[in-house]
Write a structure and sequence with these properties.
By secondary structure, the protein is of the alpha/beta class. The chain is built from eleven helices and eight strands. A hairpin with a 2-residue loop joins strand 1 and strand 2. Helix 5 packs antiparallel against helix 6.
């Protein structure tokens, strides 16, 4: 990661030795003799003497040498040079490459960039993965693909609506391949039936229901999702190591149903408390902060509700989810596996992916 470079030539071997000796207790409590006669201190003194020499040499690197290293990183002598790589960067909307080329253009224009500025620019460019070496790299490339899709849409001057973007990406190892689950920024519609009075037993109620698209709207949503997945796949496929395979699919969403009954103190309005609980639950079950395939825990939801102002007691809490298929588990099995080798249980009840609220039924009653 990028860090600020100090003036390296301000520390001599004695200062380095004092700093390193202060750090010894962080690594071991067995080293207690810090006198010059200790063999470890003697070795440390020699290393500090070498370090002082290296610091002087590193501090003496001229600014022009750092600028040339930036040019070497880009593969360009000047910012307006054209190479096959720079052409591909423009074609593929490589924002990291273009940002570093802009730094080179600023140098040519006479901008007073320091060695720290150049270091930060080069390290920032090198941190952006171009090839997928790890699962984290695959996720980062998926987010980059979203920027490329948006830039291509703007360059081609396409009519609205705008293409979907990658909201989050989760790369998981599935056998010998990498499964990349992409969650788009498509909005989910909900509706809330109007309930303004309590029932015969004095229970106030709030209900939130998922309103999935139907008909032409559903077809358009499916088309936009398919275009996003195709765009991500085209961007990621040539950037994985030879022999690796990345399968891109939409993130699996498991529908969550919640039924809650709670008590309110006499001095509060039940509908206000219900709205606050509903807002807390809706924010809690947003997929952004969830670990993929991590099912919700009832105790965590219970604690969330009990901490909402105006909740005196939680009468009951029921959390269930609409199960998803266990196909990814079956896909990992060998083609010659016997039926007895299949995972136990029915192929239905198995939590997958990320949570999505389907129905929230809240009831509140004033404590007498």
């Amino acid at each position: 990661m990028a860090f600020e470079l100090p003036d390296l030539d301000t520390r001599d071997s004695a200062a380095l030795q004092a700093e390193l000796i202060r750090r010894i207790p962080q690594f071991t409590t067995l080293w207690t003799d810090f006198n010059a006669s200790d063999p470890g201190i003697t070795l440390l003194q020699m290393l500090c003497w070498i370090g002082e020499s290296l610091l002087y040499q590193a501090n003496a690197i001229p600014l022009l040498a750092r600028q040339n290293y930036l040019r070497q990183t880009l593969g360009l002598a000047f910012s307006d040079n054209v190479t096959p790589y720079s052409e591909a960067a423009v074609r593929d909307n490589d924002s990291a490459f273009e940002a570093l080329r802009l730094v080179l253009a600023q140098i040519e224009a006479g901008a007073p960039l320091t060695a720290t500025d150049l270091q930060r620019a080069v390290l920032g460019y090198r941190q952006v993965p171009y090839l997928a070496l790890t699962l984290e790299d695959v996720q980062a490339l998926a987010l980059q693909a979203s920027q490329v899709i948006q830039a291509n849409w703007q360059q081609d001057d396409c009519p609205p609506p705008q293409p979907l973007q990658v909201k989050r990406a989760d790369a998981l190892a599935r056998g010998e391949a990498t499964q990349l689950y992409v969650l788009s920024d498509a909005l989910c519609a909900y509706h809330m039936p109007p309930i303004q009075s309590p029932d015969a037993r004095g229970w106030w109620r709030r209900v939130l229901l998922l309103d999935p698209p139907i008909g032409a709207v559903a077809a358009e949503a499916a088309r936009a999702e398919s275009e996003l997945l195709d765009g991500v796949s085209r961007y990621v496929a040539p950037r994985v190591l030879l022999g690796n395979r990345v399968n891109v699919s939409a993130a699996q969403l498991t529908s969550i149903n919640l039924r809650v009954e709670l008590r309110c103190p006499p001095h509060v309005l039940p509908l206000v408390v219900l709205d606050a609980v509903l807002s807390a639950l809706f924010a809690y079950f947003q997929p952004d902060g969830w670990t993929y395939d991590a099912a919700p825990v009832v105790e965590s939801v219970q604690l969330l509700i009990e901490n909402v102002p105006g909740v005196a007691a939680l009468e009951s809490l029921a959390l269930d989810y609409t199960p998803t298929a266990r196909l990814p588990d079956y896909a990992q099995l060998d083609v010659n596996a016997l039926l007895a080798d299949l995972p136990p249980g029915s192929p239905g009840p198995f939590y997958r992916g990320l949570p999505q609220l389907r129905c929230v039924d809240l009831r509140a009653k004033v404590t007498v």
